[in-house]
Amino acid sequence: MTRRYGLPSGRAAWVRVTAAVLAAALVASMGYSALALLSAPGWTVALLLIGVIGMLIGLLSSGADQPGR
Hints:
The chain is an all-alpha fold. It has one domain (about 10-60). It contains 2 helices and no strands. The protein has helices at about 10-40, 40-60. The chain is flat. The N and C termini lie far apart (about 55 Å).
């Protein structure tokens, strides 16, 4: 039945199609988030940047990036 409509058949093909759809949705949501950030007030962007930088400093100083040490 799937051949008749040009849809992929087999498990691997469905996995590829699902991965492509999820990747497209992720890219679309990232684009929407970027647009929302661009239109957000400056203090919102500043708070987000401070949070991200703080998180990176916390990860690096905790040794989480060096497993086995």
